[in-house]
Amino acid sequence: MTMVGGRPAAFFARTLAAALLAAAFATGTAEARRGEPCAKPWPEIVKAIGPAVVSVTAVLVDPFATRERVTFGHGSGVVLDPGGEVLTNAHLVAEAKLVIVTLEDERTLPAERVALDPVLDLALLRLADPPPGLVAAPLGSSAAAEVGDEVLALGNPFGLGRTASRGIVSALERIVPITTTSWLSPFLQTDAAVNPGSSGGPLVDVCGEVVGIATGMLGEAENIGFAVPIDAVCRALPSLREHGRVIRPWHGLYGQLYDARLEALLGGPDVQGFLVETVEPGSPAEAIGLEGGLLPVKIGEREILVGGEIVIEVDGVPVTDLATARRIVAGLEVGRPVRFHFWKEGTIREAEIVLPERPILPQDMARLRDAYRR
Asked: How many helices (H) and strands (E) does the chain have?
């Protein structure tokens, strides 16, 4: 028998193996991103991240009502840091007069709403007096997510209490036309149950890390829920923390891609670009003369508002597909001049404007409220 320091070599081999196994669990996310699967069982993941999942109650007061003036909204949230920062959905707390957070141990704490973003449907809360030992959820990455990946949705559906629901990632980059900005923030789709009250809760991967924030579901369907990808959340967090909002340039035009297929179906001009369906009043798009459509046309389940201009180029970049359109919008900056080329009344026109910051419009929150109602 081989001996090392008076002990059998096998002893040290077993010790080393145990240490390596522990390290493997501790670095599960890094391994997962290299393509190696995590080995954590779901009950272990729930025990670890469960204390970071909270219940959020929004107290709303209708100043125009004569009865039932106080109503309550119930949802979920996730603790981001032990100092009391909590992430939830904007549609849950945007109009709340009071927000109450309930921890896993049933303690209730008032929370201040410190930031809102209606585009991503995110809100940041700050607990008034966070208890010591508050557990924060580890944030992962949604970039490597694939259809078929197992996930767990954690939240408080229907106010029943803490619930875990297992499923898979059903689709990536899913655009759900809830608001005119929906195309800018595609969701992760999951068949893990996302019900009223689940809004704001985390979607967790097999490494025990948050890959999405549950935000809604299709009411007329079964097991079709949506979550904001955590990478989009992480990009927004610095601005939310510093400014209380996400600072975005304001162009004010919304629509959809105009390609050869639409040209053939609608008999429109022989150009490629972004079909302007609506223009926000007072926006830069309105200032340079862009106009939306007036004639609704339905192709299958897809409704198109035709008759508006077609933006064919922005700062020298042709708008050839939706991915390019998103990259163009992502590259726009507040205070920077932008040059547009657009098709209008049979000719290609050119205009330049300096983009201001996009305000949070009352319509943004109203449409979120109407879309989700939970």
From this structure: 9, 22
